[in-house]
Amino acid sequence: MPTPSLKKRYTTRLMGQFIVLGFGLITAGIVPRALGPHHYGNFHFLTDFFGKIKGFLDMGSSTCFFSMLSKRPKEQMLI
């Protein structure tokens, strides 16, 4: 299976990020109004807490994985 070109991979990744950005903006506009100040504070606390836990448990392993995969794209042992 041939590897897609860099331009195609970059464009796909960029479009995906724009879609995520769009959903994030929509969510940021709807969630605070729907929850109200008290419940939004609880929501923000929980999302921040679990985001920090996820970052702590990740310990940079995802960055390491993608760096190693970029260095050796044909090595299947990494996946």
Descriptive report:
- The chain is mainly α and 79 residues long.
- 81% of the residues lie in helices and 0% in strands.
- It is built from two helices and no strands.
- The chain has helices at 6-58, 61-71.
How would you sum up this structure in a few lines?
With 79 residues, this protein is mostly helical. The protein has two helices and no strands.
Secondary-structure blueprint:
Elements: H1 6-58, H2 61-71
**Gap between N and C termini, in Å?**
16 Å
Q: Could you estimate the helical fraction of the residues in percent?
A: over 70%
Q: Got a strand count?
A: 0
Mean pLDDT: 86
Element-by-element helix/strand order: HH
Rg (C-alpha, Å): 18 Å
Strand content: under 5%
Provide a count of the helices.
2
What structural class do helix, strand and pairing data support? mainly alpha
List keywords for this structure.
79 residues, mainly alpha, 2 helices, flat
